[in-house]
Specification:
The structure is a single chain. Helices cover 23% and strands 27% of the residues. It is α/β, with parallel strands linked by helices. The protein has 2 domains: 116 residues, Immunoglobulin-like (Sandwich); 363 residues, Glycosidases (TIM Barrel, Alpha-Beta Barrel). The strands form 7 sheets. An 8-stranded parallel beta barrel has the order 3-6-9-10-11-12-13-14, surrounded by 5 helices. Strands 2-17-21-22-28-24-25 form a 7-stranded antiparallel β-sheet, covered by helices on one side. A 5-stranded mixed β-sheet has the order 18-1-23-27-26, with no helix packed on it. Helix 6 packs parallel to helix 7 and helix 8 runs parallel beside helix 9. 53% of the residues are buried. It binds alpha-L-arabinofuranose (AHR). Keywords: Carbohydrate metabolism, Glycosidase, Hydrolase, Signal.
């Protein structure tokens, strides 16, 4: 129904690479993100390999998770790596002061993290402790992980791992403007320079250094870090959460919301485009060649915690609304792939906009998981620009283009197009002119459901899941698709 959407897919003018690291996941010591979600240790009642749940690891392998960021978040700037190595029973039990004041057994430490990476097939992105750690402690952690020789390498071998691990990415602290130390940007820039100085990678390897970046629209932070420390960095982070409802703590429920909240949430997610545009423009002043990448290493929806759950555990259900937030955001990253070369949705398991939820032995995949599955071909593919002219969807004070999209050409030459209809009421007919592409058929998958807040539960784990989509045709170089209301469609063009 309504006005049709017209678009042009520019296969004739390919853009930058859509970096696989944009699909990085985040695992913080927070709630049941690690303990219970990924790690069950010696609990024989839940099938596991070396302590990590087989069901969760298998789901993450399927997703082709390229990188896992760990151990925080706010947890990172109070984390002391030496407390998480050596015999499990001898590790100190601490209090997780950021997240619920619960005990932190230190059962998952450096060796366990690298075991998780091995099982999932992902690379390391560690956030080091600047807040209440020392430059020496961070440097020694990197040496312990990466060095082929020396006392720290010997200690690593005694703890069970002779070979060094690869550490391609290191965060120099997390949210230094807040939980990482409440620093002014000038001070954070100096600390970033000082800590970074002592990060030494063994011959022939590199550890990319990512500075703690701005909170949402804090452009002064980005300007100051780039001006004072940009020359020392490989990446600069940005954190932006979609928090409907206004005010803190988040109060909008994850399910059982109305259309006002649907529209507010998607409008909030769209703000990412403006944030990246403006942070990137600030970075251009100091780094016009875009050598320093923007790492949007925390993003996603943040609602009220699920009823009955611990407020400090940030556990929330995940609905079709989150699926549309995910596709909207992944499309925005396509438009900024020249600068955004890493992002991490928060957080992988049981926390905020999660891929999977667990409860005891049970696990469900979320609608967001399914969107990430559908976008797997985007990993390291070439962005093909797509211009979309679409009617606006409006609800109360929130307005937005109804249709979002992005397209890529993968290494094998296949073209993939994603189109999302954010209008929860109207179907949308899209015609896409294929410039420089001789495809003749289109097929793929659709993710949709009857209700805006449709979601998967342990009782009904497949309420929202992708279905085959065959309602797309190509005639005379034009792709025709009718998008159902509130849907994400991903097509392979042949
Ligand atoms: O993801 C939850 C928290 O949000 C992280 O610990 C912190 O970095 C951010 O404020």
């Amino acid at each position: 129904g309504g006005t049709p959407t017209t678009a042009t897919l520019h296969a004739d003018t390919p853009g930058p690479t859509y970096d696989a690291r944009i699909f990085t996941q985040f695992a913080e010591h927070l709630g049941n993100g690690i303990y219970g979600g990924l790690w069950v240790g010696n609990d024989k009642s839940i099938p596991n390999t070396n302590g990590f749940r087989n069901d969760v690891v298998a789901a993450l392998r399927e997703l082709k998770v390229p990188v896992i960021r760990w151990p925080g978040g706010c947890f990172a700037d109070e984390y002391h790596w030496r407390e998480g190595i050596g015999p499990q029973g001898k590790r100190p039990v601490k209090i997780n002061t950021n997240w619920g004041g619960v005990t932190e057994p230190n059962a998952v430490g450096t060796h366990e993290y690298f075991e998780l990476l091995r099982q999932v097939g992902a690379q390391a992105y560690i956030s080091g402790n600047v807040g209440n750690g020392t430059a020496r402690e961070m440097a020694e952690w990197v040496e312990y992980i990466t060095s082929p020789a020396g006392s720290l390498a010997d200690e690593r071998a005694r703890n069970g791992h002779k070979e060094p691990w690869a550490l391609p990415l290191l965060g120099i602290g997390n949210e230094l403007w807040g939980c990482g130390g409440n620093m002014r940007p000038e001070y954070a820039a100096d600390e970033t320079r000082r800590f970074g100085t002592f990060i030494k990678a063994p011959e022939g390897t590199r550890v990319l250094k990512i500075a703690s970046g701005a909170n949402a629209g804090d452009y002064t932070w980005t300007d100051t870090i780039m001006r004072l420390a940009g020359d020392q960095l490989d990446g600069l982070s940005l954190h932006y959460y979609t928090v409907p409802g206004g005010g803190w703590p988040p109060r909008v429920p994850a399910v059982g919301f109305d259309e006002h909240s649907w529209a507010e949430t998607l409008a909030g997610a769209r703000r990412m485009d403006e944030l990246i545009t403006r942070h990137s423009a600030v970075m251009d002043k100091y780094d016009p060649a875009k050598r320093v990448f923007l790492a949007v290493d925390e993003w996603g929806t943040w609602y009220a915690q699920d009823p009955g759950s611990h407020p400090g555990f940030l556990r929330q259900q995940n609905s079709l609304r989150d699926a549309l937030v995910a596709s909207t955001t992944l499309d925005i990253f396509a438009r900024h792939a020249d600068r955004v070369r890493l992002s991490a949705i928060a957080q992988m398991v049981n926390v905020l906009q999660a891929m999977v939820l667990t409860e005891g032995r049970k696990m469900v995949l979320t609608p967001t998981y399914h969107v990430f599955m559908m976008y797997r071909p985007w990993q390291d593919a070439t962005v093909l620009p797509i211009d979309i002219v679409t009617p606006w969807y409006a609800k109360d004070e929130f307005t937005m283009p109804a249709v979002s999209g992005s397209a890529v050409r993968d290494k094998a030459g296949a073209v993939h197009v994603a189109l999302s209809n954010r209008d929860p009421n109207q179907a949308n007919t899209v015609t896409v002119k294929l410039a420089g592409l001789a495809a003749t058929s289109a097929s793929g998958q659709v993710l949709t459901a009857a209700a805006m807040d449709a979601h998967n539960t342990f009782a009904a784990p497949d309420a929202v899941r992708p279905a085959p989509f065959n309602a797309a045709t190509i005639q005379n170089g034009v792709l025709n698709v009718t998008l159902p209301p509130k849907s994400v469609v991903v097509l392979d063009l042949r």
